[in-house]
Write a structure and sequence with these properties.
Elements (H helix, E strand, L loop, with lengths): L1 H10 L24 H9 L5 H7 L4 E3 L7 H9 L4 E4 L5 H17 L3 E4 L4 E5 L10 H5 L1
Helix pairs in contact: 4-5
Length: 141
């Protein structure tokens, strides 16, 4: 009779409705490196704990743009959360102003910071990098 019930259910001739309830438990605990269950979940979903990224260090990018079009490459580095030191001594003054305006907008959008550290040298940082201290020659201006 079991085969007949399955056949009737398959054809939609079964009179009973089955409602299946499932529950999903979400763990919102912090990452614990000793928990084997969390390790297997993180491997399966390709999630890397933040502690592992700290060991990689921060990459500082040095740029000497020669044209205004190079500003987009600098902004892309900022979007990828890399601090950038920009030396503008190789571009004309009006182009340098346009580059700084563009980078100021980029840094503002990313909640970062831009600091002048020399006559033509600027440091642009994303939000996770903090700049401390001042350069005395910049303060005199």
């Amino acid at each position: 009779m079991g085969v007949m019930n399955k056949l009737m259910g398959f054809l939609g001739l079964d009179n009973e409705e089955y409602i299946e309830e499932t529950t999903v438990e979400e763990e919102r605990d912090e990452y614990d490196p000793t928990n084997k269950k969390q390790q297997s979940v993180s491997r399966a979903s390709n999630v890397v704990p933040f502690q592992a990224r700290e060991k990689e260090g921060i990459r500082l990018i040095l740029c000497e743009p020669r044209h205004y079009s190079d500003a987009q490459d600098i902004a892309d580095n900022l979007r990828h959360r890399r601090p950038v030191v920009v030396n503008l001594h190789r571009v004309e003054k009006d182009q340098a102003k346009r580059i700084i305006d563009f980078l100021s907008g980029t840094v503002y959008a990313l909640n970062g910071d831009i600091q002048k550290v020399g006559d033509t040298i600027f440091v642009c940082t994303p939000d996770h990098v903090d700049i401390q201290g001042t350069i005395s020659s910049v303060m005199e201006e």
